[in-house]
Amino acid sequence: MAETSTQSITIAAPRARIAEVICDFPKYPEWVSAAKRVEVVEEYEDGYASQVRFVLDAGMLADEYTLAYEYAEDLSRIEWHLVAPSRIQKAQQGSYDIEEHADGTSTVTYTLAVELSIGMLGMFKRKAEKMIMDTALRELKRRVEG
What we know:
Blueprint: E1 5-11, H1 15-23, H2 28-31, E2 35-43, E3 49-58, E4 61-71, E5 77-82, E6 89-100, E7 106-116, H3 122-145
Antiparallel strand pairs: 1-7, 2-3, 3-4, 4-5, 5-6, 6-7
């Protein structure tokens, strides 16, 4: 598996609200700039998505893939992995860890490891991962706090 990257952000909301936004996959195109279409393919008995299909277009990088999701019982951790290789990804593993604080805020830590099918120099890959994570966390914060 590829190297893992991690970034965190503080959001002025409790864990439940943040998890609600993260888990509402069909609404991603409303707030995730690269998401063109997102659909829940399979659900667990409790109604949470177990597999989600994404169609993303981030300019030079466009891809379609399906992720399998698992959830901590208290939604403090939401994790996923790529179901099958896509056009540009061999593998993807990621998670959101949501730590709730007494002041009503929460720290969201986004961890991501992607193995690409296409060759990319390490420094460019790390820069792309940083940009993806920065954007994802900023968009999540804006959606939750907005």
